[in-house]
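EI: anyone free to look at a 441-residue chain?
SC: sure, send it
EI:
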Amino acid sequence: MGVDFSPFLEACAEARRIAFSFSNPLIVHHLDADGVASGAIVESAFRVDWKKHRRICIKKLGDSEIEQIKDEKEIIFVDLGGGNPRVNELHDVLIIDHHQTKDVTKHQINPLLYGIDGGDELSAAGTAAIVFNSHYDLGVVGAVGDMQYPLRGANRLLIERGQKNGEIELANELRMFGRYSRPLTQFLAYSDEPYLPGISFNELNAEKLLSDLQIPLQKGERWRTYSDLSETEKKKLVSSLSDLLVEKGKPFIAENLVGETYLLTKREKRSETFDASEFSTMLNACGRHGRPDIGVAVCLGEKWAEEEAAQLLRLHKTRIREGILFARESIVDFGPFLFLDARNKIEDSIVGIVCGMAIGGAPKPILGIASSEDGKAIKISSRGTRALINAGLNLGNAMAAGVKVSGGVGGGHKIAAGANIPSEKLNEFLTAVAEYLRQKP
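SC: here you go
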């Protein structure tokens, strides 16, 4: 592959040894897709070896969370921990993370410490998969869920190993949700990423488009999915969608309609777990709507959880659609960034997802804010594009610059980052972020 990953792989083996030296650790993981997938990988490793363990999922690792777990003798942090030096106050700790880290002295396996870009080349789930040499498919799900697309760098290790294990196949396909799981009309009408002008949220127009293209909706009694189409039918549909997006002034989205997709071949084909992108959306739905346990269960192949996960996914997609409709009418240009005030309109757990979908190919990043559950704090989510990152944007540093002035906690990756700040400090935070972005693109 041209890159020497051996120091990182040796560190992963050492992390595995430390993890299995614990007698009854508390596994603490994040609630997004990468956090749920990585938490499931660690839980699976302990289940396979019949080792005692407990697991909890948290939204953030702040002072209150540290206080709640300070008496634990053994903790494994997954997809968090590396960004909060207060973990140094705890007892025996292992951190499996990929976020920007500073002043943490506890044992940490983090790609960033080995010259691997944790924001773009390996997620927490990917790191956990390598540590425990298992569930490479979930490593890919976590990476895709954390916007690490297309998979490159150390993420290709996951692909190589997953292909050898018969877990992963690659395909060059239309990158839309529901290729294997949704009937064609719903596949188009329920598309929110990308948003299809005139088609999204309009089943009649979606059905008319398919009729105009002479693509039958059914084969016998069964509704057809995109995966059922012939190559000729697929080309007609993709061409039509591309023309529509260009006509509506969305050439960037049109250019990225088709790309590398990741199929999880040990999962059920006509389900949301067969495609890595769809699976990541399902895990996000579980985690962000209060049921990360359901997401972990689906990751581990527990059939009882699949229907509950599907219900959470439907709720999640509805909330996302509502959020996007609000965002399209409410985004304001603040100069260095676009701004979305979603307080009391969009839940703090999904405002970042909405921002990511709303940004499209915008020439500047977007910041969205939402109220915390208790109303005393503001959750900030920021998203960029690959082009902006290539031009030097680092939203993790921008969030850190903001909280340095406002207080609170903040950080993340170059392309996606966030912060939690006191409500009364919003203006100071935004001013500091704007100043940072003016100096550094």
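EI: The radius of gyration is 21 Å.
SC: 👍
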